[in-house]
Structures are given as structure tokens and as C-alpha cells.
Amino acid sequence: MAAVSHKICKKHLVLPYCYFLAQKIVENVLRPLSSSLPTPVAHGNQYFFTNTNDIRKLSNDQSQVQILYTDSDHPQALDFNSCKGSLGIYWISLLDGRIHRGNPDGGGQAEYVISDDVVRPKGIAVDYVGSNIYFSQQTNIRSKGRIEVVSCDGAHRKVLQTGLVEGGPLALDIANGGWRDREWRSYTCTMPTVLTSRGLTQTVKNKVDKIQAPSNVTGLAVDASLNRLYWTSNGEIRFIDLSLDDPLPQTIGTSSVPYGLSASDGTLYWTVLGNNVTSLPGAIYMLVVNGDDDTSPTVLHESMDIHPRDVSISSEITSLDEGCGNDNGGCDQLCFSVPSSTGQGTMPECGCSTGIQEDPVSNLCPRVPTNFLLFGRTITDTLSRISMVSLDTDRDVSVLLPFQIPGYGANYISYDITTLSVYWDEMSPPAIKRSEIDSGEVDTFISTDIRRVSGLAVDPFSRNLYWSDSALDRIEVVSLSSNDRDDIHTPQSLSLDLMNGYMYWVDRESGEPRIERARLDGSERQVFHRGTSHAPTFIVVNPASDDVFWSDDEDGDINTVDSNTERGFPVGAISVHGLAIVDNELYWTDGFDGKIGVATIREEEGEGPEVRRGVTFFENIDGVKGIVAVDTDHFIDNDNLCALSHGCSHICLFNSSAVCQCPDGLQFQSDSHQICTEPDGYAVIALADKTGETTTTYLELYTRSLNILTEMWAPESSCPGGMCTETVDIVSMAIHLRDDAAIDVYYVQRTDKLIYRRSITIGNPESDIGEATPIITCCLATPKDLAVDWLGRNLYWTDSLRGVIEVSLLSGRSRRVLYSELDQPSLLVLDPRRGDLFFTQGDTKIIYRRKMDGTSETSVSICNSVRNCTLHGYPTIVRIVSLSIDFDPSPMFRDKLVWSYWSGTETVTVGYDLGGADSDPHLIRLISPPAISSSLYFNQSLYYSKENSEKIDKWFDNGGTHDVFSLTGIEGSEFTFLDFSIVHPRTQPGYHECTAGEFCTGHHPLCLVQDHIYGSCICPLDSFKTVHVDTLLGQRTEVCTQANSFVILATKTDIYYYPLPSDLTDAEVTSEPRIVPRGNHSDVVAVTYDPYSQSIIWLEKGTNLLYSRTPL
Question: Where are the LDL-receptor class B repeats (predicted)?
Fold first, then answer.
């Protein structure tokens, strides 16, 4: 007898359970294993079923129907069962892609066991023994279905089978340790091969595979008491006897058209969908089955108002004190309760989540695989995700990481092996974000001074992150621990050679595509390979051999260099979106075919590397993008000195030694190349000397480290031999700290009411304040205040008499009226981070806000409309004397708008937090008489000068006042302060798409800031705009073109210039009439154009004078 049993089992490969099963078959003693397992016990026969958009319960006597849970989007299948000893209803919804859990009595909100990465789920079944939930789904439209298992708490999840034609109904054969699905796949001699962590490592066909797979299966159920498998197909209920070696399907007669199916203790239940068109009611049927003596079906419930798809019967589960029921079977993640080899009871078998292999020593499941791939995916127009594929096990399954990425992101990915953190790029708004790989919490790592990431790489030894920004044309590095950053070089794609301390990138903008490299500290920049074929896109370094590979955007080849000779290897790629190498296997993402390819890198001794013909590693990935490979096997903390004690205060970069760097905006102390500190700030001061009969005004430059400013500024200049002075006549001024370490001072001169610019070269002892250059020479009436937009590189000003706010380039070109018909606008300050401008009007005593791009239809007051901008509880405003913004250098943008007003008895300085919602003004400082003439708020300190004062005072937020600049004691002079301004890298932070100059180009365009990322492209009066969109790169470029033809229109109050666009059919073209600025308010009588001087000439009523100006 034993010999016969052994022969049967050897055929089926799996001995212990097969031996037991064959022994019983030969002895013809077919005892179901359910006798040794805990079994469900009837509990009042309550019936649960899915309806169109809700879950319902039919009472014990079938007299009442209770709606338990609503707003369930097309529930497909459900199961009432026990999981971890707790009874509940579990169901899946077709459209929301979630597994729900609810209370059998209803009430409260349903929980989500799984709320992510489930596409078109079809079947669900609860394993009350192993406390797991099995479900089937179709992963996407192009790919096939799969069956998964998840622990009851949703924490651990494993893919059991892939490649199903379509996911469908699912049933568990707890007694025999297996499941059945609609495709009859892999029903093996030992069903635990699917139910357990071994997945599909054993695929022995047996009895069920001999039956031709039925079509249109809508319901599936196992009755362990009868050892039967039931299914509904094509309007019939059929079954087989699982105890027979070669069963034949039998049919159960029914007059209805069954859909969903459930079976328990010799009783069969099914649903009928119903059809309102044919007046067929939805129904739930019951049939008691006693061996071969079937009774007639009984209608439990019938109604035109229901359309039930699935049904499940209430039951109680006996407590489990063995196997997985005892401390999860001692398993770290998943526990599978399988029949023991003796046939008596069950035994636990442990498993890990998809892609994870159990550690053979600790028997624990690690957080991540040893080797794996991460790749980005575009899910929809508004959502991207990152997926992981393990290279250890389950290589045919991808798993979505638990965080979501808005818009088009994850084009570039990197991984920090030390903290198990994933870094990726986002495009709208531009940012670099990170999250631990198994966490749903996302941290915004970089969100300022960033435009378009074109490469991303982590240096885990030095704890730095490198990225390339193709829009800003540079490579930057940031410390992973402190967010301190520095820029290095110009980029396109990026890869690090950590062992040798190099970074490599592609330069496609130099006219000759080439591969460049430099040390990790940015030094020793050199051309690695010149004259690459076609268009190199992505680059990667093989850590095993230091060989460099890159993709070719035109022919799909993978290229490398051998003895300075370029070699291309066709690998079958069409549109490469990323490269990665692990263990001499080269992987690439192909955005055209939606797949990941792989090829082996071979290198014979004395020969260069060779890439073998590629094959498909993973397919059917919609929107696949960037990729990174992780190899923890070969991660060894090397002798990189940055990984040790390096002494750098901010950033440490590896260049065969530890090299300290300072972030942008900081500099090394004079006595150290390790400690970074803030650089000097600069003060430009306008002074009035009233010594003689006439008043002489001076413009002076002073330097001081503003962050440690606690003592008086003596009137010492950066120029040798005295103060850098120039006689001017200042009404108001603004300062711009240029990128080339120079200061531009813009000011309104009192006598001629023109706007001038003077440049000061910092650090040049022979440089004086430069010559005055008039930049706005026409059509100003009473200019009051100036402000520089350092992001858009524009100049704004108010003109009180004309009632306008205007803007131009810093050169004075492309002048535009931004807002008109204002009531005597006066003080002005800009907030480019949010795209706002703040200003005062006439005697309204209110501060108004509008957008810097000119799109605001009305002004918005930031103050209480009843008391104007008077601070509550303090004297009312007589006049507002100053406006300023203190910009917070941190990524939190805790910027503060500050104004000072004279109440008649004292000066009140008020703060308003721009970074918080629903902020209220608050008191900063009360200043005794006389009234202040000018003030500004910088670095949480108030600087101010009183009328006719000889000093500038500084008041700290934490209390105390210090004289920081005093003219007292200068013999023979009577100085007073007219205006002053402080400029410092922290007062003009950030880079912008307007700064980069790629978004808005052509004939003197005006790029107006909308917020800290985006801008609006405005063309000069004489130009029209064309818009070009690169859908592949997701880039939009707006180009201003000077018009050859135009129309000039005159109304009673304004002159309009309308450029006529050329016939451009390949791009979106826009043109609109623009107001020509003019300084007078008289009515226009006539207008003409002089082509020789290219000037507009007009006549005004009552003046008998002709006026003219050029369109620019």
C-alpha cells in the first residue's frame, strides 16, 4: 500500500501531503481535512449581499433588509468571516480600488484594509485560519490579472500568482489548504503551494486541470462539508466532487439565472442580478443539498430595487489556539496555516511581503529587498507614482510605493541606502521630495531656487544629494542633514562614481554634444568624451568597473567608450527614459513600449565592455519614466573622509579628501576653510548736507556684516581716503544686488523727475559710484517710490499724479502700465515670492495688495476696513511713512510685511505675517517723537531715522536700541538722512523661471512674476507673442517678435499701440492693444507715426504742443 502511495506522490513531486492524500485515496477512506480544522458555525442565518452602490443585510426571517454601508462604488464581491478573531464584512469595489471592512451590524464608517494599488478587483475570500485576505484583480487594461494575499490589518501584502487572463471570483478550500479561481489555474496536489509563502514554486496539475475551463464564470464557492467546488457559468450552477480522482462536472437545475455564489454546510446560496428593462427582479436563492437528494430552491428575498452581485452567510468561528492563531504562528509578517504532513490539524508557514525574502538567520523579513529597481510612472495627468521590482524574488511583480506624487513627477529618482529614503523630482511646482520607502509621509526637501531637474543622485557616504537643473544650467549639491546647498556646474542628466569621487553629466547645449565629468566638489572639470553620436540623454556609471554608459535619443543604442573610441550597442530600445546598473546588469526604461529592458554587460580581459542584446525584463507599464537600481550587497562604507569626522560646518564633498563648501549666500570665515558665515551686507544711504545756503544731497555706500551688527557704523567707506559720495537729489531709491557682485542703485531725482541708475562695483578699491544713467526719461509726472523685483529682473514704480503703477526691465526697456486709475499711489514694496505688490494711495491710510503680473482687477486691503491700517488699540493714522518686507531665508517663507505710521503723537510700527493664513497685524515698536523720515525692517530688526536726525537707530525684536550709524561730530557739516536701504543675499533670495531666461525669450520680453516659481511673459509695445509647447519634455516657451506692421489708435484719454502678428501657423500667436505711457492728462486730439525716428507723435487739447515717444 505504501509503495502505491509513494508512486502517486512522486509523480506530483510534493511528498508529505501527497503521500497522505494518496494513502487515503487508495484506502478509499476520503476523510475531509476540515475535521481537523476550526469550522464556521451558523449564527442566525443572516445574509449579506452587495447591491449597486451599497452593502445590505437580510434578516434571519427574511422579513427585513438593512442598508449597512452606502457610497460603495460598485461593490463586486464580499465575504462575511473572521479575521484575527474579529467578525466582519469584507468587500471590494470595482471603481474605487479598495478592500473595505465593516461591522456586521452596520454603524460607523467602513475601514480600508487596502486603499491603494488595486485595479479592477473582482474576487475576495477571507482565510479565517491564517487570518489573511485573498483577492483577485486585473492590474491594468493592457496586462493580465493576478491573485494577492494581504494580512488582516493590511500591513503586509504578497502577490501569489500573475498572468491570469482576467481576475475573477475567488474561493478558498480551507480544508485542503488552497484556493480556486475562475481560471482553474494551479490547483495542485498540495494546494498549500498557492496558499503559502512558496507562491507558485510548485505547479503540479491534477484533477481540476482535466476539466475544460468554463467560460463566463461569475460565482465560485467551496463547501468543505461536502468536499464540493461549485461555480456559476452561462446561467447554470455546476459542481465537481473534490474527493474523486477524476470527477465529472454535474449541473444543478434552476429556473433562475444565477450570478454570485456561496456555499456552507450543505446549503447553496446564489444571487440573481435582475433587469429593470425586462421587469426581472433581483433575488437571493437558497438550496439545501443533501448528497444526491437536492431539494427545490427557496427564494429568500426578491425585489425590483436590488441588483445583488454576491452573497455571504453569517457565521461564528471557533477560537484558534494553534498554528497562525497563536501569536501569528511566530511569523514576522504573513502567516499561512497549512495542513500538517500527518493530516491532523494545521501548522504555520511564514512568508514575507512581495519581493522580500526571509532572513535565514533571524527568520525576520527585512524592510527592503537586497537588490531592487525603483522606477517612476505617470498614472494620470494629475498623478505619478514610484514602483519597486525586487531582484531577489517575485521579479515579475511591481509594487507601488505608498506615497503619491502630484502631476508629472518621478522623472528622476535616487535612493539613500543609509536611511532607506527615496528622492524624486516634481515639475509643478518644481521641487525635490523624499520619503522613506515604506512610509506614506512625504517631505519637501528642496522647493526654492529650482526650475527643471534633469538628474538626481545621492552620495550616501558624504551624505549629500546632487541634482542637475537644465533650466538654470547648473549642478547643485545639498547636505542631506542640513539642507545647505551649493552650485557647481552646468548639466543634463547626472551619475556619480562614488568609489573614485567623480560625477558625470551630458552637455547637449554646447553646440557639440559631449560627456563631461568633475570631482564631487566641482573641481577638475574636464571633457570625458567629445563628439558623441546623435543626442545623448541619460548616463550611468557601472560601479563594478567604472565604465560609463549613456543612451542615444535617436537610435535607441546604449553607448560607451573604449580607448577613446565610442561604441554603440543596439539593445532594442525605442525611447529610453532612464538607465540603471546593478551586478553588471544594465536596465533601461522604454517610454514608448511601456517596459523595462535588461542586458548583460560583459568585459573580457584586455577588451572593453560589451553590452549583449537586450530582452524585456518587465512590461505593460503605462507612463514609465526614471529608474534607479539599488544593490545593498555591495554597499560598504568606504574610506570616504566625508563619512568620518571632517570638521565642515555645512557641506563636505569628497575629492580624494574631505573638501568643505559653503552653501549659497554664505562664505568661509577669513581664518578658516571649514566654518561658513554670512557675508557682508551693504547699506546705501542718501544724506542731505544743509551746511550752506543750499542743500546738497549725497549717495554713499557702507559695508558691515549685518547679522552681527551691534555697534555704531562709523562713516567709513569701502573706498580709500573717505566716503564714496556723489551729489544727487533723491526722492526715493531702490537697490539691486546683481549676480556679478555689483550693486545697482535706482533713484528718482527731484529736479527733473526722471529715474536713474548708478552701478557700484563691490570690492574694487578704485571704483567710485558710477555715472548716472537715465533709464526712464519720458512721461513721468510725480514718481513717488521704486521697487526692484530681483526674481523677474524688473523695476516697478508709482506715479502719483498720473495714478498709475508701471513696470519695465531693469534697463528701462519694455515699459508697461501695470495698473491705472489709482488714487495717488505712493509707497510701494514687492513680494516676488508670492507675486504680490503692496502700495498706499493718497490719504486713504490703507495698504493695498495686487498681483505683480498686472492680473488683479481690484485692489485688496490687508487691513481692517473700519480703522484702515491703524493698529487696534493704538492712535489712528495720520500718514503711513514707510513700507518694507523682511524675507525669511528658510524654506518656511515666514516673511513679514512691516509698515510705520505717524499718529500725530508717536510713530507706530506694525508687522503682518505674509506666510500665515488669516494673519492679524501686530505691534513691533512704538517710537517717540519726532516722526521718522524713513525705516526698514531687516533680519527681525527695525532700522529707522527720525526727521532731521543725524543717526540711524536699530531696534531688536527682543528689545533694546543701538545707534548703528551716527553723523554726530562731523565738523562743519549739518547732515540729515533722506533715505537708506540695506541689501544682502538674504533680502533677494531665490531663482525663478523668469531669471533663467528660457521660458520668456525674444525681443526684450518682460517676464512678470506670478509666484516664486511661475511667471507671465509680456511683450513690449512693438512686439507680438508666439507660444511653442514641447509636449515630450512638457516645456512651454513664449517668444516675443518685433512686429513689422502695427496699428496706432487714439481715444480721448489714451493712445493704443497694436502690433500685427506675422502669419505663423505652427504656434499659438497672441497680440493685444497696449497703452502708450504719456505724462499729461490732457485729451488727445490727433496721433501719427514717424517711421524715420520710429516715434509716436500726438497733439493734446489746449496745449498746442506736439509730444512724441518711441514704442519701447
Answer: 87-130, 501-545, 793-834
**Hey, is 217 helix, strand or coil?**
strand
Asked whether the beta carbons of 48 and 90 are under 8 A apart, the reply is: no
Q: Can you give the length of the chain in residues?
A: 1112
What pLDDT score was predicted for residue 966?
A: 60
Write the DSSP symbol of residue 1066.
S
Distance of alpha carbon 940 from alpha carbon 315, whole angstroms: 68
**Scanning the structure block, which residue is given the C-alpha cell 543596439?**
570
- Whether residue 230 contacts residue 263, with contact meaning beta carbons closer than 8 Å, is answered with yes
Strand ranges in 705-754 using DSSP code E only, listed in sequence order: 727-728, 730-737, 742-749
**Rounded-to-integer distance, Cα 1040 and Cα 1026, Å:** 7
What are the two backbone dihedrals, phi and then psi, of residue 1003, each rounded to the nearest 5 degrees? -85, 90
- Concatenated DSSP letters of 384-400: EEEEEEESSS-TT-EEE
The full DSSP string for 67-126 is EEE---SSEEEEEEEEETTEEEEEEEETTTTEEEEE-TT--SPPEEEE-SS--SEEEEEE
DSSP strand E in 224-274: where?
Answer: 228-233, 236-241, 250-252, 261-264, 267-272
d(CA 828, CA 575): 51
What is the spatial distance between Cα 418 and Cα 421, in angstroms, rounded to a whole number? 8
Q: Which is nearest to 496 in space by CA: 644, 674, 642, 666?
A: 642
What is the reported pLDDT for 1036?
Answer: 77
Treating both helix axes as pointing N-terminal to C-terminal, what angle do 2-12 and 15-26 enclose, rounded to 10 degrees? 130
Q: Which residue has the cell 434571519?
A: 60
User: CA-CA distance, 960 to 890, in Å (whole number)?
Assistant: 25
CA geometry: angle 952, 958, 963, nearest 5 deg: 20
Helices (H) and strands (E) in the chain, counts: 4, 91
Cα(561)–Cα(548) distance, integer angstroms: 7
- Per the listing, cell 460598485 goes with 74
* Exposure class string for 427-447: b at 16+ Cβ within 10 A, else e: beebbbbbbbbeeeebeebbb
Q: Which of 546, 543, 488 is nearest to 520 (CA)?
A: 488
Residue with cell 531577489: 392
What are the DSSP calls for 539-584, one per residue? EEE-TTT--EEEEETTT-EEEEEETTEEEEEE-S-SSEEEEEEETT
Which single residue is written with the C-alpha cell 539599488?
630
Per DSSP bridges, beta strands 896-902 and 879-886 are antiparallel
Mean pLDDT per 10-residue segment, the chain (1112 residues): 32 28 30 37 70 89 88 85 84 85 86 84 86 82 75 89 78 68 38 32 38 74 87 89 82 87 90 86 88 73 90 66 75 82 74 90 90 91 90 88 90 92 90 91 86 88 87 83 64 83 80 81 83 74 85 78 72 84 89 87 74 80 88 68 75 82 73 74 66 58 42 34 49 81 82 85 55 85 92 93 93 90 93 92 85 89 66 82 82 80 88 73 84 78 78 68 54 60 67 76 90 85 81 74 84 80 61 70 80 80 71 54
Nearest partner of 116 among 407, 387, 485, judged by Cα: 387
Neighbours of 831 (CB within 10 A): 22
Question: CA-CA distance, 152 to 146, in Å (whole number)?
Answer: 19
Distance of CA 785 to the CA centre of its chain: 39
Amino acid at 453: V
Cell numbers for 1043, please give them: 512686429
pLDDT of amino acid 656: 75
Q: Which of 878, 898, 876, 875 minimizes the C-alpha distance to 886?
A: 898
Give the list of residues 6+ apart from residue 130 with CB closer than 8 angstroms, or none.
195, 323, 324, 335, 336, 337
CA angle 960, 961, 966 (to 5 degrees): 160
3-state secondary structure of 1035: strand
Q: Report the alpha-carbon distance of residue 258 to residue 255 in Å, rounded.
A: 9
Q: Residue 570's CB: how many other CB atoms inside 10 A?
A: 13
